[in-house]
Amino acid sequence: MVQKIIQIPRINDEPRDIATLFEIWSQVNGCHQNVRFDFSQCDFLRPNAVAFLGGLARLIESRRGKVVFDWDTLRNKAVKNNLRQNGFAGQFGYPSSGWEGNSIPYREDRTLDMNGIMDYLTFNWIGKGWVHVSERLRDAIAGRMWEIYNNAFEHSGSKIGVFTCGQHFWQQNDLILSVIDFGRGIPTNVRTFLRQYADEALVSKLSGAACLKWAFERGNSTCMGVIARGLGLDLLKEFVRINQGRLEVYSNEGYAIIDAGGEQYVNRDISFEGTLVHITLRCDEKLYHFKDEAKPPY
Amino acid sequence: MRLSIKDKIGQRCIIKDDGQKIYDAIIESLKQGETVTLDFDGVTQFASPFFNYAIGQLLKDINEVDLRHLLQLENLNETGKLVVERVIENAAQYHGDKDYRKIVDDILEQQSRESG
């Protein structure tokens, strides 16, 4: 089988960086080839890229392709150290196991492992000590983050599961988490759902941004039945806004950004099959308190 | 009837399957007009899928006023209270027979306004 070589460039957190990831996805999606990832151009790699590349590797493998991360080409020590520390390198053939540090471990979930994911969120992410919160608030924040995983497993139809990575950045004092699935995507799900009730011609005109906006409204769900749902994204959105964090969702061609300034839903030129959720929390202790903890409300 | 949530499912009220277990355990008692107390002592983490199935689902059989009268929630912390209130509010307003055709029209109209 022919081997395709993919260059991994510097990848940050900006929308153009996410576009780079989607371009990489489009290079390997649909072609059944072995892939070698080359890091010789890479001097910076954020957790969203780590989670994305891990998921992409599993996607290629699920299509019987072989994936090699060419560790010999990774000459940037900081990137290499980070990928070793968060356990990604160890998962993909580098003889190293992760260790404690600023990185939040790279994680793969094939199935909805409630206790595993909640332990990760509770103790490895929010409860790691980057931000001093009470146990009660730590538990509350982890519960809100769970909604991302629930959505991914319940709605995405991802056959390879969900991929996560995070990091604490000392200089910005930001705590971030990226969760990615390679499922159908939220706009696709919304259109599929609405097609049951409305004309195909009309539904196909719904933009990715409009579909995302609908999905983020309280009470809206693509699951039919007698049980009311559609609160997960709303609860998450509320939490992020109150705490001056930022929630970004890239799904198909839609992009949503929610922060203290409001909500924006945008259509992008580049699309991918799946959903990337990126959360940024500020590690400012003044922000995180319950009402009865005598500080600004959560 | 009194049910310890921690004994029944543990200290995390997160997933819908656990919510369904609670629903199954209490629905008949509530339908017969018995008071049911759910004791959340020792439960520390909450998410909406659990409450959608454990409590929101009850509203298809019991109206909100009766439910609030018959179902007592004890030792539920502020996080749990917030989520359960949101779930009850959402379930009370929920109609499985929404006019989705009109919803599509509304979204398209808004989309057209925003792009114009």
Description:
- The complex is a heterodimer of chains A (298) and B (116).
- Chain A is α+β, with helices and mostly antiparallel strands.
- Chain A is built from ten helices and ten strands.
- The N and C termini of chain A lie far apart (54 Å).
- By secondary structure, chain B is α/β, with parallel strands linked by helices.
- Chain B has one domain (2-115).
- Helix content of chain B is 58%, strand content 13%.
- Chain B has a three-stranded parallel beta sheet with strand order 1-3-5. In chain B, strands 2-4 form a two-stranded parallel ribbon.
- In chain B, helix 2 (16-31) runs parallel beside helix 3.
- The mean pLDDT of chain B is 92.
- Chain A binds chain B through residues 112, 114-115, 118, 122, 135-136, 139-140, 142-144, 146-147, 150, 154, 194, 196-198, 202-203, 205-207, 209-210, 213-214, 218-219, 224-232, 234-235, 290-292, and chain B through 12, 14-15, 44-49, 52-53, 56-57, 59-60, 77-79, 83, 86-87, 90-91, 93-94, 96, 100-101, 103-105, 107-108, 110-111.
Helix and strand arrangement:
The complex is a heterodimer of chains A (298) and B (116).
Chain A: E1 3-7, H1 15-28, E2 34-38, H2 47-62, E3 67-70, H3 77-85, H4 88-91, E4 103-109, H5 114-125, H6 135-155, E5 162-169, E6 174-181, H7 186-194, H8 200-203, H9 208-216, H10 232-242, E7 246-251, E8 254-259, E9 262-267, E10 275-282
Parallel strand pairs in A: 1-2, 2-3
Antiparallel strand pairs in A: 4-5, 5-6, 6-10, 7-8, 7-10, 8-9
Chain B: E1 2-4, H1 5-9, E2 12-13, H2 16-31, E3 36-39, E4 45-46, H3 48-54, H4 64-70, E5 71-74, H5 78-93, H6 100-115
Parallel strand pairs in B: 1-3, 2-4, 3-5
